[in-house]
DNA sequence: TATTTTTACGCAAACGTTCCCGATAACGAT
DNA sequence: ATCGTTATCGGGAACGTTTGCGTAAAAATA
């Protein structure tokens, strides 16, 4: 099956005009008489002419399209961020192409390659949890392809970056648990080399420090697949529960990790917050429906997407090479619910 | 900023060959000597040559890309379906472009127009809840653009369609409530003209009929925005609770509708299943975490995406016009949890 | 009236690729 | 020596569009 759209040439033939005249008439060029313009415009309207964007891309060497790379769209943070991206992109005349790395480095490389050759005008990326080597981005970036990182950023690449204030978010979450009387707070996070993991871990540590609680690395576990693999999460939890000095709190550092932890805790038959109090870095809007309702650190995902897109488009449309780059950190929001509630028992003990 | 990739012409110039020879060498044509081939291949590898897909699209009048239109990706059913679509598309050498209608008819029209002019080779669509007029699809389809509908289909357009067995899924869900002793079962669903709404309503009615329960249209409410607007859902619930003959069960007919209902029920301070038992058509994998855990009808979303994509690609690659179309209905899965549990009180009353 | 300016349009190149059609050379056959 | 084959390669058109340049006629100026 094929699909034959009408071209500028068809219009020219039908009206006895050259393609250049038609093109200029359509663009409203001053060197076309108003009668001819009217003629062309009306005919184009009548036969429902649409300029072929592929031909335009070839000619102008740009696409008016942005590539998005995230680990997965079935993730509240990313789907909200994508909505933010779209909201700006469409208003500025850009189309978006969404790709999922599924947390695979290899797949990320393939996608980057594909998007670049497909001539997207720029890239919005949050790297996969497996990514430690950024040369696939670097190569393109140095060749002049604009890239803006959001959420999980590549610190070694000098460009715009937009993130949540992960340090503060983690600090707040941890401190909240501490204020509610929990003292042995475990932390389950994503791959350690991820920027977000480091930032959140640092916030967690700082909160412990400020509250005179010793940092114990046995309480910290990394899930190298970002919570995509259930067993990895369950293993981490089992180790935590095997500790002689029992953990009484848990701070989970990602959307997927948080929900997977909740599932694992249920399977392991742990009561929240009695056995362990939980607060998670997640953008799910279903937290209040959980049993118990889930305390969360919420990221301004939509706004992060918006800001990143504005920066990217400004880079794309800049006449001269961009030399000043911004790193924006947007504030998170702490939403307290029952999963981190202070328990009477714990309180009386202290 | 601009991005200058290497072309076939650059290779030709560097090697003292014509573009045609280079092109043929790259394609492995028989009329190029093996030495020349080796030379070209090695040089191309060295400078990391990538064919420009835009030029190819222009020439071959196809893109190797598929357009996807769904209401929103922040929806478990659709994100899973998209994963299914991708799994097939990438293996067959197609790229996907995802667009969200956000349940808006107007936006859907814009998207269709954009994707078509963008020369996607075919469309995979689940229509928006506002869509009653299908001419925007029909026009393109009649011009030869292959379209496959999934989930929410346009019955008046004769093409491949892939859905879950909505009738049976709804029947099973309703009957499950009945078997558990509930007799006044409300049904909250999406816009009435949506194919899925009709199919699910019919399954619901049939289950009532088979179990000698009278159908009461006061128990059925339509949410014209598919659960995207909270108030619409809360209103429906309030009306249900105001009925003189109280409802004791609720069957919700969509992913978003189900979760929004759960939120509204919580806000209205209704106990599940004591005040009302709930079962919902949803693909969330978080149902077991809810309070109470949520009984669901699960659709084989991933498989629906896969099957739809296979059908679409077969249409695209078919030499002759396709005249035989399939309508596939895949089986749903009933997952029983606590939200629909028979309650002692209800049982003793009967 | 002769010259310049303006108006309004066409020609052709370019974007990167493929592919039809020739073209050239070597080579064996006649 | 001439011709048909075969193997290898280049020229150029085409895909749909924009745009610099050229140019005819019309209008304005001298």
Offer a concise description of the structure.
The first copy, chain A, is an alpha/beta fold and 350 residues long.
Topology, element by element:
Two copies of one chain form a homodimer.
Chain A: H1 8-15, H2 19-27, H3 34-46, H4 53-60, E1 65-70, H5 76-91, E2 95-100, H6 105-117, E3 122-125, H7 135-143, E4 147-150, E5 161-164, H8 166-179, E6 185-189, H9 195-210, E7 220-222, H10 230-242, E8 249-252, H11 255-267, E9 277-281, E10 295-298, H12 301-317, E11 327-330, E12 333-335, H13 344-349
Parallel strand pairs in A: 1-2, 1-3, 3-4, 4-5, 5-11, 6-7, 6-8, 8-9, 9-10
Antiparallel strand pairs in A: 10-12
Helix pairs in contact in A: 1-2, 5-12, 8-9, 10-11
Chain B binds a DNA duplex (30 and 30 nucleotides) through residues 7-9, 17-21, 23-24, 27, 30-33, 36, 51-52, 54-61.
Overview of the structural elements:
The structure is a homodimer of 350-residue chains. In chain A, the strands form two sheets. Chain A has a six-stranded parallel sheet, sandwiched between helices. Chain A has a six-stranded mixed sheet with strand order 7-6-8-9-10-12, with helices on both faces. The longest helix of chain A has 17 residues, at 301-317. The first copy, chain A, has helices spanning 8-15, 19-27, 34-46, 53-60, 76-91, 105-117, 135-143, 166-179, 195-210, 230-242, 255-267, 301-317, 344-349; strands at 65-70, 95-100, 122-125, 147-150, 161-164, 185-189, 220-222, 249-252, 277-281, 295-298, 327-330, 333-335. In chain A, 44% of the residues lie in helices and 15% in strands. Chain A has 13 helices and twelve strands. In chain A, helix 11 links the parallel strand 8 (249-252) and strand 9 (277-281). The first copy, chain A, is of the alpha/beta class and 350 residues long. Chain B binds a DNA duplex (30 and 30 nucleotides) through residues 7-9, 17-21, 23-24, 27, 30-33, 36, 51-52, 54-61.
């Amino acid at each position: 099956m094929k699909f034959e759209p009408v071209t500028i040439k068809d219009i020219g033939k039908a009206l006895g005009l050259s393609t250049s005249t038609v093109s200029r008439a359509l663009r409203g060029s001053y060197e076309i008489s108003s009668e001819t313009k009217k003629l062309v415009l009306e005919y184009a309207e009548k036969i429902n002419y649409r300029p072929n964007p592929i031909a335009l891309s070839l000619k102008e060497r740009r696409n008016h399209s942005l590539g998005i790379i995230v680990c997965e769209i079935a993730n509240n943070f990313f789907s909200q961020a994508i909505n933010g991206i779209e909201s700006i992109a469409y208003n500025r005349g850009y189309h978006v192409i969404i790709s999922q790395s599924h947390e695979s480095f290899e797949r990320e490389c393939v996608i980057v390659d594909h998007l670049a050759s497909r001539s997207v005008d720029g890239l919005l990326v949050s790297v996969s949890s497996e990514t430690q080597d950024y040369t696939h981005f670097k190569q393109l970036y140095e060749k002049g392809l604009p890239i803006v990182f959001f959420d999980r950023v590549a610190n070694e690449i000098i460009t715009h970056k937009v993130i949540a204030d992960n340090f503060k978010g983690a600090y707040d979450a941890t401190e909240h648990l501490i204020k509610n009387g929990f003292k042995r707070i475990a932390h389950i996070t994503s791959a350690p080399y991820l920027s977000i993991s480091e930032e959140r871990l640092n916030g967690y540590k700082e909160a412990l420090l400020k509250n005179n609680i010793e940092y114990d690395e046995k309480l910290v576990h990394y899930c190298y697949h970002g919570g995509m693999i259930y067993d990895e999460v369950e293993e981490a939890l089992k180790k935590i529960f095997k500790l002689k000095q029992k953990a009484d709190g848990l701070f989970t550092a990602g959307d997927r990790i948080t929900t997977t932890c909740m599932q694992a805790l249920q399977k392991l038959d742990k009561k929240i917050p009695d056995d362990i109090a939980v607060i998670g870095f997640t953008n799910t809007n279903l937290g209040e429906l959980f049993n118990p309702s889930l305390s969360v650190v919420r990221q301004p995902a939509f706004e992060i997407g918006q800001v990143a897109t504005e920066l990217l488009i400004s880079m794309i449309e800049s006449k001269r090479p961009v030399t000043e780059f911004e790193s924006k950190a947007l504030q998170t929001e702490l939403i307290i619910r029952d999963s981190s509630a202070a328990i009477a028992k714990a309180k009386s003990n202290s």
